[in-house]
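fold-stage: in
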Amino acid sequence: MDSQKKYPQAFSLEFFPAKNAESAEKLRETYTQLAPLKPGFVSVTFGAGGSTQERTFDTVREIKQHTGIDVAPHLSCIGSTKDNIRQILHNYKTQSIRRIVALRGDMPSGMREAGEFRFANELVAFIRAETGEHFHIEVAAYPEFHPQAPSAHADLLNFKRKAEAGADGAITQYFYSPDAYFRFVESCEKLGLDLPIVPGIMPITNFVQLARFSDACGAEIPRWLRKRLEAYGDDMKSLRAFGLDVTTKLCGDLLAGGAPGLHFYTMNQAGPTLALWQRLGLQSKGP
């Protein structure tokens, strides 16, 4: 973990674009409640093949304008063309956006060809070629390994290619075993990689939803945790209290072990992230 301990700890949040007026108002309330925490930046997701492209643009502009916080839009390349990505980068430059979360993304439904980009490292290299050092580029990391990777070693090499293509940092998929993160970082160090790898944190508020997300993305819910969460049944209050204890300990262990910050997947809800942030004493620790 020596590679991570030299980076100053910074904390960030993730939102997704609203689908309608009601969810847009909820998102507005959420980022307004969380803005006083002064996160280092907030990220905004982007659908496969640009399926939420306009909503992502609108959300990025709104949050930046209303809070003054740095915003890092996600940019998925699968199913996109170089001209399309070039135009998006130009739009963000004109908005004075300085961060990008560069991702491969999932193949859009019904599409058979990947387009002009197959992997995230190709997107990172393209961004660097087109814009130089204008953007601080974050990429994804998978401590429990990407579900489509043929092996753990192959997934590590994929991450290495993204780092060497010009990534400035990485944000991990969420996980609940700190050892998975520590071992992943140690494996990266053995490959000679030296960039901040920030753990992604998913608050636990709904077991059914969490299990569905985890099955889809390959994030493991340890058996002991799954059984405890299942046992609460419809007692959501007790489940959330237990989930808060679990994620607080996870975050504390990660920071004590040298993690260079935390990235909270808010799910457009303020309460769980606020509770975690306050328990950990992270107020005003943005860069």
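fold-stage: in (second)
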Amino acid sequence: MKNYNVSTISPLLANAKTALIVVPVISVDSIGAALALALGLKKKGIDARVYSPQKTDNNYSKLSGLELISDTFTGGDLVITLSYPLDQIDQVSYNDDGGKLNLVVKTKSTGPTVATDQIVINNQSGSADVGFMLGDESVLGENSQIVNKGNWILVSPINVTKPWAKATIIDPDAPFSEIFTFLLPMLGLELDADSGKDLLIGLRVATQSFSVNVSPESFEAGAICLRATQPEMTQAPQSVPQNVTPIEKVESAPANPGTFSPSTPPTA
């Protein structure tokens, strides 16, 4: 069991409401790890999204949470969220008031008055409350400046030092999927069937089905992920499980809504 130092990461997550996970270089391993992290954060009530400049293809189709990935980053969008019943909104428009922009939301006569606490303004030019960078940000080009604002955590299999990182996890002996298999529980994030499947797929691809670049911890991580994908036990704890899914069948198990499950294993 690997034991990473998360003493500087946990405080960054303690009060976070939003998280951005950036994958500069796409691979089944890095995307699987990013999605597992995003799913774990969302289960904890943190609004998480994944940004990668490259599009995924069919090699990634068995991963859960693909809808959380965006291949575009807009640094200057202003998003105004209105917590109000959509069926009570009659029209949305804007006008120019002496050089000032007015957004006009016209509600139906039968609808309640819009309260101030129902309006949420999100300036996306700023970073999320916490950010995870999975690798070297420099390959993002002009978008690499994203790390200049906010609280960023660097996770990398390459031993580097980044001045912008508030916290760093470096493990040169492990792929991203192995790192996050151990890291998620240390951060108090749940490893469930979907996140376990994502990490297991990433591990299998990164290690060519546990045949290259493996360590005892690689097999331990695989066991942890496989265990997370198993159906909940209905028997008493001391009984022998009768419905354990073999590792080669996990990826072809029915996916949750928004995911896919082709029958052939992904390739890097």
